[in-house]
Amino acid sequence: MGQYRSAFRGTGLVFTDIREYQPGDDVKHIHWKASARTGKVFVKSYEEDRQLRVLLAIDASASMRALNEQGAFSRAMEFTSLIGALTQAGNDLFGLSLFADKPLTYLPPKSGAKRIQQIISALMSAEPSNPGTDMAAGLRNVSLLNRKPSIIFVLSDFFSNEFRDELRTLCSIHDVILVQIESALEKIENCGLVSFFDAESGQRVVVDTANRAVRQAWDAQLQKRRTELHDLAQRSGADHIVLTDNPIRPLLTLMRERARRISR
After folding, report:
1. Fewer C-beta within 10 Å: the chain N or C terminus?
2. At 200, which CATH number?
């Protein structure tokens, strides 16, 4: 919990009191009504709002849901439970934006145990009408509906269309973390001829996993996707983590790295 608080800080300021103006104070904080009433110049006093607004933008497309309990969507639900527990312990606000080929469900950030239950329920009952993914539309929807600065985790396998501009727009206001979820079965082993089915396009392809060159090319493509997404995140002002199984390890690594960055 301490690492969570160190890594993610409140971005808002809450008005607390007024005090007399002192040289160096920002003139935009002058309280004009109090100054006019008393004949002295007063400024507004603020303190940091420590309550965080946390939103999970989760891809519920067919590629995320393909392998049921072994698939990426199950990892997303585990990650949601983990973040939900942290936000509840910190009395923070917790919300959800669910999307596939179009925006599906939006639950604005709120506090309390009931909010976590509502979010888990929305994830369990999600049934997109089409199998595809439109990441750009999902991020645009978050920008439109969630205007206040927030910590936004985007959970997806990122098999989608181009979304660079939408990500940059989101990062201009919010603290964004891309959570790239990879199924354990995405790393192929030597299993002979294997038929793969694309859950979104319906295309089938047979892969000779016994061929060492095929396995190496497959692994190289997976690493390329990770690197490209990491570079996009850095250029846009976001963070990037890869989630393959246990959600705690990559989240802890992220929090430690962010705490080091803040302390510099």
Report:
1. C
2. 3.40.50.410
